[in-house]
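Weekly structure sync, notes
Attendees: PL (lead), two postdocs, one rotation student
Agenda item 3: pending single-chain targets
PL asked that the sequence for the first pending target be pasted directly into the notes so everyone works from the same version. It is reproduced below exactly as submitted, 387 residues in total.
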Amino acid sequence: MMRFDSARRSRRVALSYCLAFVFIVWLSATASAAPQITNISLRGLRSAATTTLTIDGADLLPEPKILLAIPIRAQSIKPGATASRVQMDVTLPQVPAGMYKLRVANAKGVSASVLIGIDDLAQIPYGTHIDQLPAALTGNLAYGTTLQTSFTGKKGQRLVVDLEARRLGAAFDPVVELYDARRVQLAYAQGHTTLQGDARLEAVLPADGQYLVELHDLLYQGGNPDYFRPKIGTLAFADLLYPMGGQRDSTASFEMIGSGLPQASRLQVDLHGAVSDIPAALPHTPGLVGPAPRLIVGEFPEVLETTPPAGKLQEVTAPAVINGRIGKPHEEDRYRLVVKPGMRLRFDVLANRAGSPLDGDLFIRNEAGAQLAASDDRPDTVDPGLD
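Predicted structure, written out during the meeting:
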């Protein structure tokens, strides 16, 4: 995507009042502290199902309620709840897969949020064996440790291990490896910028039998927080949309780009009233997991790359946003920009910052083909841009 556009006693008395005031405020604050979340047993919830969550923290009572940006069909507190630990059953309707902020609220206030994933996978604690796939596991990676879990696979089965750690706020650099029963490595993945530093691998299993997933920090060290959530199974995901965005107060169609998706997977999105970028609402497709790709909402007309007649260039009138694709090595996309004398233009290529693997170059030429300006990497991004 490319965008362009145009006395001592007095002091003692005062100090006493200040101290008294601070003390009263402190008493008031401690007497009605908002709930705090220090840990949750699972970093995910299952769509169209009930998930049991154990929440650790402080000031969780009385009558805590979970808050999400989506509807909650039902929630109930299990017996034995205390101010520092609450176990709850949470039932969701069918909701789009993605990352969501979870908060706890009670009569004393609302907690800070924690990030969780929501999808249609079974939500289980991390263990040494997974009885049934697909599943989403929650665990913690202690400093300097390597964790393993196994599962039974079938020959020809397409397998995805998509690890959420950085995307949930963890601080270690994840590596995921897949081995067969003979300890032969079948796939390896480490953190990638397009996944905000998380790791994802895909493989086709060569035979029926037992397989091993191994997880560790890149330097075999760790970080704090150390929680993680690998999703394992025959999964589908959409990392990008094409076009990447749409014009505010319009209705637009988007192609989902990822892996394991049905052919011609598209979204119709109403952008009327949208005030900022939004996560796409992924359709309900078995095995489709989040997080959802970001949909960029802008002010300018959105232009899609087309194939012009031979010897011609696609014309674009500024200001506009051009959406295109570089699909093969050495490919160049060229456009004829219609401008007026004296216009001040800004060119901003958005690719890597939006999750695309493209490392682009930008060239501005006149009608005769002479180069007027060029841009490659900028100090804070590999995406080119210039004024």
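Discussion points:
- Residues 308-386 form one domain.
- Helices lie at 8-31.
Action: rotation student to compare against the earlier draft before next sync.
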